[in-house]
Amino acid sequence: MDTTSAPVTARSDDGRSFVVADASGSAFVAGSLVIVTADERRQLGLVEERSETSPVRLRGRLIGELAADGIDTRASHAFESGALDPVDEATVEQLHATTGAELEVGVNLTPPGGPARLLPKRFNRHTFWCGQSGSGKTYALGVVLEQLVAHTALPIVIFDPNSDFVRLGELNADAKGPTAEALAGRDIRVLRPHGRPGSELRARFLDLPLPSKAAILRLDPVADRAEYNALVHLQDVLRQGELEDLLPMLRNRATEPGHPLAQRIENLAVLEWEVWAGEATAVTDVVGERPDATVLDLGGFSTPEQQLVVALALLDDLWERREERRPVLLVIDEAHNLASPNLDSALAVAVRERLLQIAAEGRKFGLWMLLSTQRPSKVHPGIISQCDNLALMKMSSPVDLGELGTYFGYAPAALIERSPWFRQGEALFAGGFVPTPSLVKMNPRLTPEGGTDVGVPLR
Ligand SMILES: Nc1ncnc2c1ncn2[C@@H]1O[C@H](COP(=O)(O)OP(=O)(O)OP(=O)(O)O)[C@@H](O)[C@H]1O
Ligand SMILES: [Mg+2]
C-alpha cells in the first residue's frame, strides 16, 4: 500500500508519545498503526490525532519495541528523529500473538486492516458498551459472546430484557469453522418466565438477605419499624418454605384485622408474581452449576418488578459467595434497566447498589461485568468509572461523546469523535481487552438473533 509520498519524520521526547511536525502528503490517520525506525530500533506506534492544519501534524503513542521474537510492550524509547512507515499485516499478527489477542470479532477499519481480535484474559475487568439505538450493540455483543463462550471457560450470565439472546444455543445454517464447532458443544441454558419445567426463571424469597426482602415489600427500617421488625423476627422462624408460607403465620399471630405485614403482602399482590420458585429450581441454583452461558430472558414477566427480583436474587447470591472466587461474567444488556441513576423504587435502588458494589469491589473476587446501554448518562457514574474496557458504537450526541471522553481517557479523543459517522456494526474498542485502540467492523453472527426489530408493513 502506498501510504506516503514523502518521508515522514517523528520525534519522541518522553519515550511514550511521538509527534510529527509535518505529515503533509501522508495518509496516516488517527487509528493507523505505524512503525517508527530510529537509532537502529523499530517501535510500533499508534497515530492518535491528525490535525487539519497546514502543515499536517500527527500525535501518537508508542506501543512497544519490535524484537525478533515478538513485540515487547513494556519497552519504548525516546528518539530525536525516526522514520514513520505503515505497518504490515505480519507485524499486527505478531502484536496479537504477544498480547494474547485471540478472540476474532471483526476486521480492522484502519490500515493495514486484517482481523480484529480481543484479549480474552482482559475480560477480568468491567466493560462499558455504548451506542445509540440501532447502532448494532446487541448484535455485536452477540459476536463477542459467541467468541467468549466458544474459546474460554468463563461462565457467562446474560441479563436479556428483550429476548435477544434466547437462541444463543442454536447455530445459523451457514455457521462453519472452529468457533461454530466449539459452540455446538457448549452448555447454554435459557431461563424464561414461562419456560418448560427445569428452564423457568425463578427466585426464592426466603434465600434473600433481609434488606432485599424489605426492598421487595417496600419496607423502610425506620418509617415502617413495626412491620420491618415483624420480618426480622420471622427470619428465624422461616428457614424453609416460601413467601406464601408467611401469610398463614402472620394471620395466626395477628389479632383483628390482620397483621399489617400480611396486609402489605396482600396489597402488593406479591404472591401472585410468577417469579417465586416454589418447587422449581431457582436462578441461583442454575448459575451455581456454572453452565458455559445462562441467558435470563427477563422480558416476559407480568410486572416489571419481577425482573428486578431475579437480578437482585442472583447478585445477592454471587456477592454472598464472593470469597469462593469463582469467576463469572455478568452481561447486562439495556443496563439502564438495572443501573440508571434515575431509578428510585426501593427494589431498583437495591439492585443498583449491589451493582455499584460489584463494580467497585467485585473484580478481585472474579465478579466481572459488561454493561451495554444507549447513553452514558443512563448508567450510574459510579459504575461507568470502574470500567476499564470500552466498546463504542455509533453515537451522534456531542454531549454524550464528551461525557465518554471524561471517563475513558485511554480512548483517543480523535477516535471517539468519529463515532457519529460509524455505520451500523462498526465499533471503537479501547482499553485492556484490545491490543491497541481500534476501529472495527464486526463479523457476522454465528447464532440467530432472538427478538429482531419489527418492520413497517409495506403495500
Ligand atoms: N453487524 C451487523 N450485521 C447485520 N445486521 C446487523 C448488524 N448490527 C445490527 N444489525 C441489525 O440491525 C438491527 C439493530 O441492531 P441491534 O439490535 O444490535 O441494535 P442496538 O444498538 O442493540 O439497538 P437498541 O439500543 O435499540 O437495543 C437488528 O435487526 C440487527 O439484526
Ligand atoms: Mg439492543
In helices, the fraction of residues equals: 25-40%
What's the end-to-end separation, in Å? 48 Å
Number of strands: 18
Strand percent estimate: 15-25%
Assign the CATH architecture of the largest domain. Answer: 3-Layer(aba) Sandwich
Sheet/helix structural class:
alpha/beta
At the fourth CATH level, what is the homologous superfamily of the largest domain? P-loop containing nucleotide triphosphate hydrolases
Give the biggest sheet. 11 strands, mixed
Quote the average pLDDT.
Answer: 92
CATH topology of the largest domain: Rossmann fold
Weakly predicted, low-confidence segments: none
By CATH reckoning, the class of the largest domain would read Alpha Beta
Instruction: Give the overall shape, derived from the CA principal axes.
Output: elongated
How many individual helices? 14
Quick structural summary:
The protein has 14 helices and 18 strands. The relative contact order is 0.16.
Protein traits:
alpha/beta; 3 domains; six-stranded antiparallel beta barrel; 18 strands
Q: How would you describe what is shown here?
A:
The chain has 459 residues and is an alpha/beta fold. It folds into three domains: 9-99; 116-203 and 280-442, 3-Layer(aba) Sandwich (Rossmann fold), CATH 3.40.50; 207-272, no CATH class. It has helices at residues 89-99, 137-151, 178-184, 210-216, 225-237, 243-253, 260-268, 283-288, 305-320, 336-339, 346-361, 381-384, 398-407, 413-416, and strands at 9-12, 17-20, 33-38, 41-50, 58-67, 70-72, 79-86, 103-108, 115-118, 126-130, 156-160, 188-191, 293-297, 328-332, 367-373, 387-392, 426-431, 438-442. The strands form two sheets. Strands 9-8-18-17-16-10-15-14-11-13-12 form an eleven-stranded mixed sheet. A six-stranded antiparallel β-barrel has the order 1-2-5-4-3-7. A hairpin with a 6-residue loop joins β8 (103-108) and β9 (115-118). The longest helix is centred in the last third of the chain and has 16 residues, at 305-320. The model has no long low-confidence stretch (mean pLDDT 92).
